[in-house]
Write a structure and sequence with these properties.
By secondary structure, this protein is mainly α. It is built from six helices and no strands.
């Protein structure tokens, strides 16, 4: 799918353009929320610290959106959304 290609681009180094585009889609409300949820789940599967502050500033607000974070299903004790948010809050100064 197109979102799989975007995750692939992200994994090849086009992080900020891809995440910026997805964030705009979320803000404009012109994309089905389940697609953004799918993107977030796939991204969380391929990323690992250390994260750049630019990435955190773009990606964290997507995760903190109630339509995203509150509805991503987790298996067992592993909660990648909570882990990413906790990592960011303990390693970055968050500016709104």
């Amino acid at each position: 799918t197109l979102l799989d290609r975007m995750v692939h681009l992200l994994s090849r180094g086009y992080v900020l353009p891809v995440v910026s585009y997805i964030r705009k889609c979320l803000e404009k409300l012109d994309t089905d929320i389940s697609l953004i949820r799918y993107f977030v789940t796939e991204v969380l599967d391929v990323i690992a610290p250390p994260y750049t502050s630019d990435f955190v500033q773009l990606f964290l607000p997507i995760l903190e959106n109630d339509s995203i974070a509150g509805t991503i299903k987790t298996e067992g004790e592993h909660d990648p959304v909570a882990e990413f948010i906790a990592h960011c809050k303990s390693n970055f100064i968050m500016v709104n």
